[in-house]
Amino acid sequence: MSSVRSRGAFIVIEGLDRSGKTTQVATLQTRLETEGIPVKLFKFPDRTTTIGQMIDSYLRSQSELDDHVIHLLFSANRWELAASIEQLLAAGTTVLCDRYAFSGVAFSTAKGLSLEWCRSPDISLPAPDVTLFLNITPEQARSRGGYGEERYEKEELQRKVRDVFQQISSEFTEATWVTIDAGREREDVAEDVWKIVYPLTGGLAIPLQRLWE
Ligand code: FDM
Fold it and tell me: Which residues form the Thymidylate kinase-like domain (predicted)?
């Protein structure tokens, strides 16, 4: 009888700008490490690769690229790390990902590209076991001190991004896409994140799924 070997969980954290995503991801990573759970964090875009450097230059408005081109570069940046993610999961490591294909679709669709077109280059990437979406209202975002300097850090675009994230989430089950109210105290948000993630860290016996297949 064939059996699926236990593997690590693939956990994606997405969130709106100013949702405290970076802090929550760091807190989660530290807590997992403290518990002795093998964990590896990826962050997309990964600006360290050759493709990542092109993305970085674009985001800091040091270069101009057609909307389709930058979308494909973001996707290629995930594909170049997909094999590493799969290997880690197979070895039993919990993989955390700060942003993933959902940011890819949300931002490019918000800029005016079609959602279906945006989704296609990311089809077949490793699918997360759960996506945690850190949600805040535009008003909360504003009260947290406004946006930064990079290309996409503008209120109108962020509103559109929020709508596309909502559209994307409607295709997932409640178990695979969890929206967390990130407008609360940092500790309360971290506790909700932990309650969802910790039970997944004991090893999963289900095969890794492919995104949007
Ligand atoms: N972003 C991020 C995209 O437009 N597409 C993508 O595929 C990804 C992963 O890049 F505004 C956007 C989201 C954000 C910007 O992200 C840089 P960080 O998290 O601020 O580095």
Answer: 13-192
